[in-house]
Amino acid sequence: xxxxxxxxFDRLKGELEKSNTWPAIYLFKFIVPTDxxxxxxxxxxxxxxxxxxxxxxxxxxxxxxxSVDVQMENPQAIIDKYIEVSTIEGIISL
Length: 94
Hints:
InterPro entries: UPF0250_YbeD-like, YbeD-like_sf. It holds the Pfam family DUF493. It comes from Flavobacterium seoulense. This is DUF493 domain-containing protein. By secondary structure, the protein is α+β, with helices and mostly antiparallel strands. The chain has one domain: ACT domain (Alpha-Beta Plaits). The protein contains 3 helices and 4 strands. The chain has helices at residues 3-19, 36-45, 75-85, and strands spanning 24-33, 52-57, 63-72, 92-93. A 4-stranded antiparallel β-sheet has the order 2-3-1-4. A hairpin with a 5-residue loop joins strand 2 (52-57) and strand 3 (63-72). Helix 1 packs antiparallel against helix 3. The longest helix has 17 residues, at 3-19. The mean pLDDT is 94.
């Protein structure tokens, strides 16, 4: 992980610690190329967590937004999940 990414996650963790009582519901938002395998990889990352997952394809059909509402135990669990899904080719985390 590069320095800029580390700094971003450190800042995010600090903001999450201040703004929520844990455990808390967190909304993850991703954009992935419209490819069933990539969408499935995102869904599998949240498997067994009781997540509510919604997908919406772009007008052109090239991309799919994936929204995931899930209860997370703490800010570090959120960061770990962002790092886990970052290995999916073409994913953009919002």
